[in-house]
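[job 0412] stage=fold_complex status=start
inputs:
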Amino acid sequence: MIRFDILTVFPEMFASPCGCSLLKKAADRGFIAIHLHDIRSHAEDKHHMTDDAPYGGGGGMVMKVEPIDRALQSVPATGEDVPIVLMTPQGEPFCQKMAEELAGHQQIILICGHYEGVDERVRTHLATREISIGDYVLTGGELSAMVIVDAVSRLVPGVLGNCESASSDSFSMGLLEYPHYTRPAAYRGWEVPDVLLSGNHREIEAWRRRESLLRTRKRRPDLLKERALTIEEKKWLDMFIDP
Ligand SMILES: C[S@@+](CC[C@H](N)C(=O)[O-])C[C@H]1O[C@@H](n2cnc3c(N)ncnc32)[C@H](O)[C@@H]1O
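[job 0412] stage=fold_complex status=done
writing structure:
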């Protein structure tokens, strides 16, 4: 069971992604718990201001440190080593390895910024790590927090029906996954590779490993540089030259 505490000024944005499909099932079955904390309800002035103009001038508003700090203090900590993650395009790039590491925690706190971003003191004094979901800028941290919740939740044992699915996914083994097919075996003349219909599990396994390797070389050669190849894998790569 993993608990996510999400600090946001737009909690309503989470209703749909958390309210259907695997995440809903995972929550209903007690594998994950998602707690939303409205930062606005921790703003103590009469207008419940969560942002203000930047010191030094310039456009855009900056999220204030006090409501975020108070929201954080209201979150019950379930253990010692709870990551307090600030979502920011300036953070460490999110990847499958990081999702695996985060899935080892019992609780994760995610802080969603908005507008020009958050007061720097959130970064320096409150957050324990910063994560970016890619080199582009979103309007707010909510979508990026959902990406983390989704990628981490599917690694929690029991969330995926078939426990093999996550381990053969792209990136888990340092490779992209092999291609999938389902019925019908032929459609408009587009045929499923014979080996998948053969019933020979050893050959199917070998075909999948080879396809995974060749696909990775073609689309993400950078991944292969980080991987120690077996003799068999090297042989396959030499045998099959991309057109
Ligand atoms: C418009 S962005 C602020 C960008 C900021 N001015 C900068 O240049 O670094 C508002 C908020 O969206 C979230 N955000 C935007 N892009 C993101 C990304 N690539 N990864 C994670 N969070 C992001 C962050 O929480 C950020 O505080």
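[job 0412] summary: The mean pLDDT is 95.
[job 0412] exit 0
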